[in-house]
Each structure stands twice: as C-alpha cells, then as structure tokens.
Design brief:
It is built from 21 helices and no strands. It is an all-alpha fold. The protein is globular, with a radius of gyration of 23 Å.
Length: 483
C-alpha cells in the first residue's frame, strides 16, 4: 500500500474529520501570513537587542564607562545565566491561558525596556542589571516559539516554519552592522553614540509589545484573524494532529508524559547537539566584527563584510528546513551542515590568507545557524504528545543554552588575530554535533522498525485505532520518527 505512514493511518479516520485539501491549504496559508511574520519579527528585534552589545563596544562603550576586556566578557556571559535559569518559562505558552497573548506581550515589553535602559547605564553594574532582565524576558519568548508553532502546524509543516522563525537571527545580523554604523557614525552633542544605539534599537521592541497583544493567537481554532469556517477547519486539523482541539491543548502539562519523556534517549541527545552548536552560535555574532578587523579590515569595512555570510546563512536556514520537511530527513541535513561549519572554523584557525579565512566565515555561518534551525523542529517532530514536546523543548534549552557560557569566553583579546583556542573549540564541537546527529538518527531508524512491528501486530489483530482516539502527532498507530 503506497503513501506515507500518516496517509495510511488517515484511511482509518472518520468522514467527519475530512478536510478539502484546497480549503486546508487556504487556512494554513492564512496562518502563515499572520503568525509566522509576527513571531519572526519579534525574534528579529530580540536578537538585535541581545547582540548589539558588540556594536556598542565598537562605538566606545567600555572606554566611556571605564571597564576592561574581562568585564566586557562578563557582559556577554551574564545574558546566558538567566536565559538558562528561566528556560522553564518556555512552557508558559501552554500552562497559563490566555497564554500567547499575555505571555508574549509581557516578554516583549520587558526585554524592550531592559534593552532601552542600557542607554541610561553609567557604570558596568548598571549594564549587567539590564542584561540580566533582557535575558530573563527573552528566555520566555524565543525558546517557546517552536513549541507554540506545534499548536498550529502538523509535523511535516513545522520545520519550515521554525526555519523561517529562526532565520531571523542571521537576518538580523546581516544588517545589524550597517544599522549600528548608521546610528553610531554621527557625533550628537548631548549623547554618546553607543547610548543612541541602545535607544534606537530598544524602543521598537516596546512598541511591538502592542502588536503582540492584539495579533498573537493562542491556537488556530481561537485565532481572531480566521473566519468561523476557517476555525472549524483548524479544529479538525488539531484533532488530526493529537485527537484534541487546539484550545483544549492549552492547560496544565501531563506530568506522566513529562516523566516518560525524561526516560527517553531521544529527549537527551538533541540538547547535547544544541549545546554543541550554541558554543559556536553565541560567539560568532559578537566577535565576528572584531575577527574581521584583525584580518586587516577597518572597523567600517568589518561591519559591512559581516553581512554577506549572514545573508547566506539566512537563505540556507530556510532552504534546508524546507528540504528536511519534504524529505523527512532532518538528521542527514544536520550532519552535513555541522561538517560544513567545522571546516569553516578549521580554515579560520589554520589559514593566514585573508581570502581563505573570509571564505571560512561563510562556511561557519552557513553551517551553524541552519543546523540549529533543524535541531529544534527535530526535537518536536519526534516527541509523541504535547507535554512530551514541551518537556523536550524545555530540556533542549536548559542544557543547550549552557553552550554560550563557554562560547562567549573563548575569544579573549590577547588571542587575536587567529583566536586559535576559540576556533579550535568551535570546530571540535561542530564535528561532535555531526556525530551526535548520526547516533540519534541510527536510534530513530531502529525505533521506527519497532513501531512498524507494533503496527503490523495491530493490523493482524484488527485493533487499529480510529483517528478520533489518537491523533497522528501522538504516539500510536501510524506514528513514525522523522529521521
């Protein structure tokens, strides 16, 4: 019998759960036009707000406030301590209705205020406090968005949308340097350039909190931008996914499922992969202008030359997540991307030619960011219930976000211009990430064979479940891991 595992199982569905493909496509496209640009735009400004500290440093922040390189390193590191401690907040998208509306608004407002108030800091301690609250608020937003998207999209639709969302990071970095240069190149009489940078890039986040309040939906079947008929279709899609309407999926997590997920090896390997990528991911945006300067470029040229590698990364993020959704082969994609990034760091480490090292920057950026864009949906794809998906995302971020604690300490100023230690560590972790992806994919292949045997036994016994009892996103008949 041809078709995917889901299509075979869908043959068991009640006629009431049938959706005309053209109508379903129209509803999905409408969600794409509203939700995806919203979460992507908010993540873009969040990434600008967290990473503009590097541009502020180039504009003379530490000189004006009188602190040295070790203190600057701590400004980078302090962001990730509350970001790790408050990772549990990713589950708040589910736990406290009306979740998305209130939660997203509060997160955006707090990080916007914290980012803007950095302009008012007159010492290192003030900046540290602002960075702490900036991270605390961002921890409640970005890590939980892929989980939120799983309430709107089916498994084979999710990765591409996560890729678009996460591509905001390299896209932001593409123009962050030029934007920062435009803001800090003047000489205002009454305010330092770096203070103006924090104000100009922080205020939009505060304003976007209002947009989040009025536009962010909790689930597709309660979305105000859908008509009554479109919400009915969304409800059926949710039932096809999990056996429950989207609105009924909001509420207290099932702690039995959470405990079961913590006993599953496929819950633990992705966090180690995310940790490995984040060692490299966290350091690249804040140190790349400095690395390019140490290749011999001026500060202005370094800001400009950092844009093309990130634009390539932005395109690769979207392309690879789309291909992985279509082929359901996310592991092979991550392996390839990780090897590309590792080679890029090796070139930065070992070569003295400026052209070759700049090519290495392209490889590193085109590997690291897209690898992360595939790891997050891979985690959600292979967890069998909403609560397991939430636990998987929470664990992914708690462990994975420890990577920047190491990554942001690997490029001390005295290691310039080649930063041998930092480049070597990043290369090693990217190769390790490829190995972890291979191990996880091998395990998932074995588990899929076990699922097939269980389904065959159910067919032989005539005990196949109906769609109304177990959705295709949940573990049960027809469920298969994405490889």
């Amino acid at each position: 019998m041809g078709g995917s595992y889901e299509e075979k199982a869908l043959g068991l569905a009640n006629a009431e759960l049938y959706i005309d493909p053209a109508v379903e496509k129209r509803v999905r496209n409408k969600i794409d036009r509203v939700l995806v640009p919203l979460v992507m735009g908010l993540y873009l400004v969040a990434f600008l707000d967290r990473s503009n500290i590097g541009n502020a440093e180039t504009a003379g922040m530490s000189r004006d406030l009188g602190f040295d390189d070790p203190h600057y390193q701590w400004l980078l590191t302090i962001f990730y301590i509350p970001y790790i401690v408050f990772e549990w907040a990713a589950l708040m998208w589910k736990a406290v209705p009306p979740t998305a509306v209130v939660w997203a608004t509060c997160c955006v407002l707090v990080w916007g205020l914290a980012s803007t108030l950095q302009a008012a800091a007159f010492n290192w301690s003030g900046l540290m406090a602002c960075r702490f609250f900036l991270a605390m608020a961002e921890a409640g937003y970005g890590p939980g968005v892929p989980y939120l998207l799983s309430f709107f999209y089916k498994r084979h639709e999710l990765g591409f949308r996560c890729g678009i969302f996460l591509s905001a990071a390299p896209l932001a970095t593409t123009f962050a340097g030029a934007l920062a240069y435009g803001i800090t190149s003047g000489h205002p009489a009454h305010i330092a350039n770096w203070r103006l940078l924090f104000i100009v890039e922080g205020v939009p986040s505060v304003l976007l909190a209002l947009v989040a309040y009025y536009r962010m939906p909790d689930s597709a079947d309660t979305a105000s931008f859908l008509t009554e008929e479109e919400r009915r279709v969304a409800k059926i899609r949710a039932i096809q996914q999990t056996g429950s309407e989207g609105a009924k999926r909001i509420g207290r997590p099932n702690f039995k499922d959470v405990f079961m997920s913590l006993k599953d090896i496929k819950t633990w390997i992705p966090p180690l992969m995310y940790f490995s990528c984040n060692v490299s991911f966290s350091s690249l945006p804040v140190f790349l202008p400095t690395i390019l300067q140490n290749m011999g470029f001026t500060a202005i040229n370094a800001q400009g030359l950092s844009a093309p590698p990130y634009f390539l990364s932005f395109m690769v993020c979207i392309l690879t997540t789309w291909i992985a959704d279509k082929t359901r082969q996310r592991g092979l994609m991550i392996i390839g991307l990780s090897l590309v990034a590792g080679v890029g760091y090796i070139l930065l480490l070992a070569c003295k030619s400026v052209a070759v090292r700049y090519f290495g920057v392209f490889l590193a950026a085109a590997g690291v960011f897209p690898a992360i864009s595939n790891i997050l949906p891979w985690t959600i794809n292979n967890q069998g219930t909403d609560s397991k998906r939430g636990a998987g995302i929470a664990l992914l971020n708690i462990i994975g976000q420890c990577g920047p604690l190491l990554g942001t300490r690997m490029f001390p100023a005295h290691d310039a211009p080649y930063y041998i230690m930092g480049m070597g560590v990043c290369a090693a972790f990217m190769f390790f990430n490829a190995l972890l992806a291979l191990v996880l994919r091998t395990y998932l292949v074995w588990e899929n064979r076990k699922f097939e045997k269980n389904d065959e036994a159910a067919r032989q016994a005539g005990t196949e479940p109906t769609m109304g009892s177990v959705g295709l996103e949940n573990e049960g008949y027809g469920f298969r891991n994405f490889l």
